[in-house]
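Troubleshooting: if your tokenizer reports a length mismatch, compare your output against this known-good record of 398 residues.
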Amino acid sequence: MSLPLRVAQLSRTPSRRDGGIFFALAGLLPALARSGEGSLSLAAFGARDQDAAVDLAQWSPVPTQTFAAWPPASFAYTPGLVPAVRTFAPDLLHVHGLWSYASVACLAVARRDRKPYVVSPHGMLDPGALRFSRWKKQIASALFQRDHLDRAAVLHALSATEARGIREAGYTGPVAILPNGVNLPTLVSAQAASAAPASDRPRTLLFIGRIHPKKGLPALIDAWIPFSARGAVGSNWRLVIAGWNEVSHEETLRAQVSAAQAEDRVVFAGPLWGEAKDAALRAADAFVLPSLSEGLPMSVLEAWAMAKPALITPACNLPEGLAAGAALAITPDPPGIHQGLERLAQLDDAGLKSMGISAHRLVEAKFAWPAIAANMIRLYQSVARGQPPPPDLLARDS
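Known-good structure output:
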């Protein structure tokens, strides 16, 4: 009987402060543990922050080691990381995200112990993402990130669009495409919202995510103010913005809402986790992500799993949602968002429910974790053997 394949999972931090990467791993790692039982041995590593002690439980049963980090938190230099990974003695490494010490540590272990590794940029090589803090990323690229990418056995893209962005960023090696996934509730529990028909109560459009400039929220608010004004088509709607504040962006948004005297139409709900987030999704009538840059957004998949239609931009990289009738397309500017909002407002209860059912079925068919984890294990096995990735997982130009 062969020994289990040992895979070290590295990320900046095993906490909500790593944004979508943390939530993606909260689904992927337990799914890998279940699918690879007996054939896979996993361990996760990252920097310790004030939320890690609570949040890393979401990666159970995968054992996770955290280490004190030096500032800045965005880089998270952790002196204990490399020795701990080497003690685990992985057959291969999988790094999630870029621009942090996790990339440096992976490169150090791979060089020293001659181990292959997989890199999941999680959208961080997309052109829109590269525009944020451009000069810092150029320095990091010259110091370590370009070398780290070039030496990877394979890069893992979340979508064909992200794969194209990886090519545009200059990477020439193989690229495998596996989407993020979600844990799928039953359709009945997903739709268990208010007993009152949507037409008999105020409707809710929900945003959940990082409160960050790249999410396109200023443009959403600019569009929302005339859409929801008294006498307008959206006067029966309210916008709920739930998320954790980054770079003091929420203060800017609150000032924008206050200047328009729209506090009764825009609610800032703060960060929502666990059952509170699920409850907000169940109670919402639709979801919105007006983002300028994404890998493959977990928040949209979670909304679809809860049978909620979504308004999404091209940067969300989910064209299958438009094709399946699970989403309405918007552009990340006030006129484009306003147009999408008006289309949403024209839907009656039956129309909203029909889109929600299509969304749930799409997630069930393509974005449930068990099948994604099984394919990731196939990718690991190929990399560990020094073979090309399975052909059915490769981007077309790989």
